Each structure stands twice: as C-alpha cells, then as structure tokens.
Amino acid sequence: MLRIFLMLAAFFGFTGVALGAFAAHGLKSRLTAEYLAVFQTGVHYQMLHALALFGVALLSTHVSGTLVSLAGWAFAIGILLFSGSLYLLTLAGLGVGIITPIGGLFFLIGWALLLAAALRLG
Q: Which compartment or compartments is the protein found in (predicted)?
C-alpha cells in the first residue's frame, strides 16, 4: 500500500497546487467571488487530504491491518467526490448536489478509521 498511497498523495498534491494556482491566476476574472471561494474550498480539502494520504502511506509501513488502508481509500474517494464535485460545479455549472456531502462523509469515514486503527494499537 505504501507505493499506491504515496502515488495518490503526490498526484492529489500536485493537482491541488496546480488547481489552486489556476484559480488564483486564471479564474479570478472568470468566476464570481462566491464560485471562486467554492473552488478554493475544493482545493483546500484536496490538499489537506493529500497530506492525510501521505500520512497513511507512512503509517502503512508501521501498522498492519486493513483499517489504515481503508482510511487511505476513503480519503482518495472523498477527494474525488467532494473536491471533484466542487470543481464541476464552478467550472462546468454542473450542480451534482448530493455528491459533495457524500465526499465529505468519506473524509469523516477516513478519519474514523484512523482513530479505530490508533485505538487498536493500545
């Protein structure tokens, strides 16, 4: 899992920085302030969870079991659903409604799984 989660962390980190720069320089004049803030929220959560994926990758080398791996997959799915839906909303006008909170739920599941993994260490 180390390689997969490191690759996902790097991919989401790279694209998060690129999308943040794109928003700051390329979208500033094209989006309303409200939509620009929505886009930046997507970037913010993508970057936070790219770092979480990096942590999961490192943790997977020290903690055995499936909870850490499931947390990593939950974070990756959360990024795709939460941040991806916000990007679609702002760039394409596609209001995908329920997808954003489902992505947020995957973030919560990922953190809960990490908590469960930590409790098992005790």
A: Membrane
How many domains are contained in the chain? 1
Query: Which residues are CB-contacts of 43 (< 8 A; sequence separation ≥ 6)?
Result: 16, 19, 20, 23, 83
Q: What's the rounded mean pLDDT across residues 63-73? A: 94
For residues 93 and 90, give the distance between their C-alpha atoms in angstroms, rounded to a whole number.
6
Q: What is the pTM of this model?
A: 0.95
Confidence of residue 97 (pLDDT cuts 50, 70, 90): confident
**Domain extent for 93:** 2-121
Q: Which two tokens stand for residue 83?
A: 């941040």
* Nearest-5° Cα angle at 28, 23 to 30: 105
